[in-house]
Amino acid sequence: MSADPESAAGRMSTAPTDIDSSTPEKRPISSENSGTINEDTDTTDPDALHRHQTHKTDHGADADGLGRMHTAASSFMASRLSLPHEIVFVFVVCCAQLVTQAGLGQSISIIHIIGNNYGLDKPEDLPWFMAAYSMTVGTFILISGRLGDLYGHKRMLVIGYLWYAVWSAIAGLAVYSNVIMFDICRALQGIGPSILLPNGLAILGSSYPDGPRKHMVFAIFGAMAPSGAVLGACFASLFALTWWPWAFWVFAIVLCLLALLAVAAVPAPPIRHSEPTTFRTKVKQIDLLGASVGITSLLLINVAWNQAPIVTWHEPHTYILLLIGILLIPLFFYIELRIAPFPLLPLEALKSTDIAFVLGCIACGWGCFGIWFYYLWQFHLELRGASPLLATAQVSPVAVSGAIAAIATGFLLGRIGPAWTMVAAMSAFLAGITILATMPIDQTYWSQAFICVVVIPWGMDMSFPASTVILSNAVSKRHQGVAASLVNTVVNYSISIALGIAGTADLYVNKGGRSKEEVLAGYRAALYVGVGLAGCGWLLSLAYLWHDYQRNKAGGGKK
């Protein structure tokens, strides 16, 4: 939900290109955005060479001009823009984050209105409106980053906006069809943000040199997340006063306008000489086999968990889908380690124990957030009888709190370090979900609901930058983009799959949900799943803090 300046400095994925078979001269290449020479990267590695070629192309730098002294700000795209042009450029790219979260908010605020339109009388059917979207956002990020490396990040940014617009419009038209069609449209909508996020981050990362200006740009990018969720919910609630499909149709128009602005305002990099020319080369460089197996595995596991609350685990197809998805995971690892010439996920670069700690924290914390976000809205809409607009107003403090948290985290990371920041983030997740899980129905908004709305954004906007900094320090420079994309993937996928797990708990506790008390019991069961996830994340963050302390005490030993 937020972005860190350190996280986007690298590419969103590392897609190598065809390299001449002759052994290259042993010259160090850097994956830093400046395109400058660095001493710790081996150019005999084709992946590193491709990154070097990519950065040369992105910055329009002549090959002979790349050297240790080539660090001038003029090599960055943003430095060549006028101030008005730069403002529009930053706005268009940062809107990638805003519209991603707006897509989440636009369905949750009017979830019961949409459900009533399709005649859904079971609350277990409703989470799919949110889960289908988050599922594809998280699943397709890695492959989208790879495509950006190969075909250009600006091109993919424009495609992302247009794809998102098309399926938003079709989602509105699904009012004439059925709920299955709407769920499919929501899933296909989510592919748009999965294209926007990694390529938007890559554009910003390659446009600015490290410094206060870059930090401010990424603080803006981070602050867009909670603001986007509130704006999406607000406008969807307003349009629902007339007819809910207008929320999706107007959103599609806005996305088309952003695509046009991206064409005009985002600087166009020179044509890549490394773009694959044959189908066979494209398949190799995209890692189509690994991507297909990995995406299929993630989709099947997610569908199983989110379908289970609807049809229960007694249906054979539910656990068969789960079993097939789990069995595909070792096949994916085998392909990445043994078969793929250019693996989508270079596992040899992800062996640090830091990575296991951090991804565990992120999965638990953001899974907790997904449960919190969904059931907070259900609490206001279903149990307290608030209108969509009133519920949006009650949730709106997340925008202000999130913006403050995003900016404050930039200062805290440099003063207390990422390990302590991660502990603070997991503490915020745990506190926020616990407050909601213990909240009674008949209580003033200011007692607990307001407090949890203010607290949770600190978990969101502290954990993301802390995790990207930790992973950035844990992997080599040429794998910085993979680390950032991996965090994005875990964040969005965890939101979706945690909803399915919580929905199962809700289903088996609410006894049919025939009264408010039974519905509340189901909600509490789901929220306790979130408390458990947040607690696991908090314990993992403490374990990582101890691990980091012992390593520093030993003088920075091997990770």
Automatic annotation (TrEMBL):
One of its GO terms (molecular function) is transmembrane transporter activity. Residues 89-549 form the Major facilitator superfamily (MFS) profile domain. Residues 47-65 have a biased composition (Basic and acidic residues). The chain crosses the membrane at residues 87-114, 126-145, 157-181, 217-240, 246-266, 286-305, 317-335, 355-377, 389-413, 420-439, 445-471, 483-505, 525-546. It holds the Pfam family MFS_1. Keywords: Membrane, Transmembrane, Transmembrane helix. It is found in: Membrane. It is a multi-pass membrane protein. GO terms for cellular component: membrane. CDD domains: MFS_Amf1_MDR_like. Residues 1-65 are annotated as: Disordered. This is Major facilitator superfamily-domain-containing protein.
